[in-house]
Amino acid sequence: MIDVIFVILSLSAILSAFFMIYAKEPMNSAFSFIVTLLSLAGLFALLSASFIFLVQIIVYAGAIITLILLIIMFLNIKEESLPKEPHKLKYILISIVFIIPIDIALLKAIATLPKANMALLNNNFGTVKALGMLLYKNWLFPFELVSVLLIISLIGAIVFAKRKI
Predict the structure, then answer these.
(1) 102 and 152, same structural domain?
(2) Which residues are CB-contacts of 10 (< 8 A; sequence separation ≥ 6)?
(3) One domain, residues 99 and 149
(4) What is the pLDDT of residues 8-66, one digit of tens each?
(5) Same domain for 102 and 141
(6) Minimal CA–CA distance to 36: which of 7, 69, 61, 4?
(7) Best exposed site among 55, 101, 112, 143 by fewest CB in 10 Å?
(8) How far is the C-alpha of 135 from the C-alpha of 115, rounded, in Å?
(9) What is the pTM of this model?
(10) In terms of Cα–Cα distance, which of 27, 34, 76 is closest to 57?
(11) What is the per-residue pLDDT across 114-134, written as a single tens digit (0 to 9) for each?
């Protein structure tokens, strides 16, 4: 049963990501992005990563998509104001032709790896406590560096927004 759910969520993520790229209307692209993020959240749930599952839904599918939709509605982007992309399908197909051999090579490399028993997971796997301990013990400096970088980018965005007004 889990394999069927995995296949459904994977296909849903792949197809909605394709529609997100190929949609002509920005709103349709944003809604396809929501489906992609929710499908990825379902895949995290299948991996028993409850914290990442909840973060994916609350932060990405909730907050970020709400901001994207508000920006799209605020700008009122019409199809005629979007740039013409007559060769978009050709570029996508060329990309697929180049990516498929790389995918095949990766799958062959993964198939040669030794098999591991994936059924035995630690009881703390994917919990908030385990993630927090890992983040603050082993990755404290990069975590703080990213937070400082985000604050600097926020200040920069405010400064640029003030100049336009």
Answers:
(1) no
(2) 39, 43
(3) no
(4) 999 999 999 999 888 877 788 888 988 998 999 999 988 888 888 888 888 887 777 77
(5) no
(6) 61
(7) 112
(8) 28
(9) 0.59
(10) 34
(11) 776 666 667 777 677 888 888
Q: Which two tokens stand for residue 59?
A: 């932060």
Q: Which of 52, 48, 55, 45 is nearest to 122 (CA)?
A: 48
83 and 148 inside one domain: no
Indicate the length of the chain as a whole number: 165
83 and 33 inside one domain: yes
Neighbours of 100 (CB within 10 A): 10
Q: Are residues 75 and 141 in the same domain?
A: no
Compute and round to an integer the Cα radius of gyration of the chain. 20
Residue 81 per-residue DSSP state? G
Count of structural domains, the chain: 2
Q: Measure the CA–CA gap between 143 and 87, rounded to whole angstroms.
A: 41
Neighbours of 6 (CB within 10 A): 14
Do residue 66 and residue 139 come from a single domain? Answer: no
Q: CATH number of the domain at 111, please.
A: 1.20.120.1200
> Tokens in use for 137?
């013990």
With b for 16 or more beta-carbon neighbours within 10 A and e for fewer, the 50-68 pattern comes to eebbebbbeebbeeebeeb
Q: Which domain holds residue 145?
A: 127-165
66 plus 137 within the same structural domain: no
Q: Looking up tokens 């050709």, which residue turns up? A: 90
